[in-house]
Design goal:
By secondary structure, the protein is mainly alpha-helical. The chain contains five helices and four strands. Strands 1-4 form a two-stranded antiparallel sheet. Strands 2-3 form a two-stranded antiparallel sheet. 11% of the residues are buried.
């Protein structure tokens, strides 16, 4: 099989040989330069850190999620505020919603706020890892995350207003 044809096969998502190629084969000067990271089978994990499977993987994933909640609560004041507000808002949503859909919208809108705050905190932590110096792209990423949190809070307020204020909808 020629290099060009092999590259076309790989780009189409089909392996050229028994080996599954992770990156496309580079073709330079008519010669095939295989810069591919390859595995013996497609079922083999692409991450060396992801070696467990089944129930063990689910249990570990749950533990990592709890670590994430704990870290976000410990280091992020905004998340702490949203959790404490959620302790009031979520039961209130179950109580004030008249049907299942209203309850799901009231409660789900606040859970969405907390999800977006978790993602924003993850972005900020990843950016802060590289150092305290200011960079235009780092600032932009943090501003975009903050805008996402603002939009999720605005959505929650709109949902609550449309459901609870008579005549608004």
């Amino acid at each position: 099989m020629t290099c060009a044809r092999r590259a076309n096969w790989i780009c189409a998502g089909r392996p050229a040989t028994k080996t599954f190629f992770y990156r496309v084969v580079a073709i330079r000067g008519g010669q095939c330069h295989n810069h591919a990271l390859h595995f013996e089978s497609r079922s083999q994990s692409m991450s060396e850190f992801n070696e467990t499977g089944g129930l063990t993987r689910i249990i570990k994933a749950f533990g990592y999620s709890l670590q994430g909640f704990r870290a976000c609560y410990q280091y992020e004041a905004a998340f702490r505020q949203e959790v404490w507000a959620g302790l009031i808002v979520i039961p209130l949503g179950f109580w004030l919603g008249e049907g299942g859909i209203e309850k799901a919208l009231l409660v789900g809108s606040w859970i969405l706020v907390m999800i977006v705050e978790l993602l924003n905190s993850a972005v900020e932590a990843a950016i802060d890892r590289f150092g305290p110096e200011h960079h235009k792209l780092s600032g932009r990423a943090k501003d975009i995350g903050s805008a996402a949190v603002f939009l999720s809070i605005s959505l929650a307020a709109l949902v609550w207003a449309l459901i609870l204020v008579p005549g608004l909808a």
